[in-house]
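Hi all, a correction to my earlier message: I attached the wrong file for BTB domain-containing protein. Here's the right sequence:
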Amino acid sequence: MVNRKVTVEAHVVIKEMIGLDRKNLRKFDESVRDVSDVVVVVKDRRFYLCKEILAVQSTYFRSILFGNNEEHPEIEFHDIDPEDFQAFLELLHGESSVDDSTVEGILHLAHVYNTPMCVRRCEEFLIEKSKFKLDKKLELSLRYKLENLKPTCISHVTSVADVREIVSAEIREMDLHTSQALLRKLLIICD
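and the right structure:
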């Protein structure tokens, strides 16, 4: 301590970085302009896309692009993140873009744009590969109605501490059925 001030020096080892400088798996920029027939603008970032690919996977895009026979050379979205949209499009085009840093953004867009394939792939990732804690997985399963993930989460509850973790997360979407399943699981654990 010098002059009533403490100086602290810390040595940190970074074991893993998630979501920083994520490399795009597919380009949707000017380089594919010649093979696109619609442009989606997300917060000043332009995505050059094919209407048919969007429409086949998403009823939302089908209704916008083909619903009233109007031409839509450009569509603008202001309330979504361009990086989330990039990862969503990559998944929609067959890339493996789902990881712990992208899954929540992709799920949100898949839910908004009604793309069941993207929802299914995100759910499979959460069940098989995600490193998220149990409470986060359960929260996502409830928010996005992931009916295969929810029982998987409940089956992984093995201790009172697991139940405490879930309850302390104060999951707003917790429904009666899930609450009852957790209570039954707690009773089994305590027996």
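Sorry for the mix-up. The radius of gyration is 21 Å.
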